[in-house]
Amino acid sequence: MGFTAKQLAFSVAVLGLVSFILGVLAENKKPPSGTPIPGKGVVICSYPSDPSVVLGSLSFVFLVAATAVGFASLFYPYKGLSIPQYIMFKDSTFVIFFNITVFTTGLGAALLLWPIIEERKHLNNKVHHDPSTTCPTAKTGLLGGGAFCHLIRLCCGW
């Protein structure tokens, strides 16, 4: 027994919605900054508990899963019949929506990964030799922006 179009569409929608929710939660849970603790020639940053890295990473994983299922559903044969790819890519409407979807997926992935990597670097490197350090965190708004790019992708294409 194969998958139906409704099952694949429902899977993409659920995975995408979970990715969106986790991305928004990650943005809301991200601390604005750490607490600088001055020492002799160094500043040690103390950061509060930060679930944004885990939530953002899970959001990215669900984005990849939704994209994989969505991409597979485009070329999956329904009832044993498949449409050749060259025929689908001759249709200009399909090509436009396909490209918009690929672009927003890449943008959403980049906007999710950038603050996750930056936040992880800040949490790992807590000792700074610059006494004017203010204990930064990753840029605010990127996780939420990535989540909303993914929501746009869901509304537009797969």
From TrEMBL:
Main location: membrane
PANTHER family per UniProt: OS07G0462200 PROTEIN-RELATED (PTHR31769)
Species, as recorded: Rhamnella rubrinervis
GO (cellular component) term, any one: endomembrane system
Protein name: NADH dehydrogenase subunit 6
Similarity comment: family membership: Belongs to the DESIGUAL family.
The keyword Signal is assigned to this record: yes
Signal peptide from the UniProt entry: 1-26
Compartments (UniProt record): Endomembrane system
InterPro entries: DEAL/Modifying_wall_lignin1/2, DESIGUAL
Transmembrane regions listed in the UniProt entry: 53-76, 96-117
UniProt keyword annotations, A-Z: Membrane, Signal, Transmembrane, Transmembrane helix
Membrane topology: Multi-pass membrane protein
